[in-house]
Amino acid sequence: xxxxxxxxxxxxxxxxxxxxxxxxxxxxxxxxxxxxxxxxxxxxxxxxxxxxxxxxxxxxxxxxxxxxxxxxxxxxxxxxxxxxxxxxxxxxxxxxxxxxxxxxxxxxxxxxxxxxxxxxxxxxxxxx
Length: 128
Fold this sequence. Notes:
By secondary structure, the protein is mostly helical. Helices cover about 50% and strands about 0% of the residues.
């Protein structure tokens, strides 16, 4: 790879390691209603040059405040996240934001009956 494509071994190893980490993070979230925690415990994830190689959807979830935490602070942050996620969730408040109504689906060229099937799968209110 070095001779054919001018790719240094360290660059490839970094890419490969971050690809594996991204895949692991993606496996935690399998659907819209899933949530989970992934702990990036290696101090190298605090470095901007490493984080910038992660996918954008992962980087959007990493804040400066959540980088380089002590164990106690990380446990407190995780405890708060899990407590917040355990609260009742009003799905109707998410229509048009993270979930589309039948009108949104039809407006964007889809079939309106798609939401009816989705609503039955996740106990959403049935559209009129």
